[in-house]
Structure prediction request, 213 residues.
Amino acid sequence: MKLTLPFNTSILSIVSKVLCLSFLMLMGSNLSGQIFFPSKNNDAPLDGSIGEIPPGHPITYTISFTASDIENLTVTDNLPNELQYIPGTIVVDGADACNVSTPSGAGGSIVLSCPAGTVIDGEVSISYQAEVTDIGNNTQGLSQFLNNFVNITGTGASNGNDYNSFASSSVQAERLSVQKMILNDDGLIPGDNVVYQVDFQISDYADFQELCI
Prediction:
């Protein structure tokens, strides 16, 4: 007999995190002062597994992690030279007492730093918007991957240990990006009509004489 069990990676991920947190609670103060689950993602329209975006269009990046009894927290998000932070878009949750500095112009770093004696305990999220600058040659196609790295450091307030975590997020810059999806992909059988949706975005700096999709 063959027995097949349903497998859901999202549920497995949640269960893993719950088990991990339960284990840490059982261990008590031996593991006080930690940085867990660092992640960074963006909302660029997906084409397969990676987001794609034309120059001039805003991208929302979100950094998240869980801190346990952490002081001297510093989050450094290094933007590549092809990305430019959009002023006034940064939002911080879970570390409101900390200071934030943002770059002017393309590239640079977004830095969140907490004053001495400030202990962070719980979930932290940092979101902001950036856009791809006018890159590439207007007479040629554009297909460039932009990788964005964030470094999270801190010290355990109780144990004095230093912690260092990383996360990254990537987008593909294109002059014209196109996504195609099926809207009624729910148990289709032969003879059913298939409904497609095509989305596209055009670079703010593109100079197309003729565009045919």
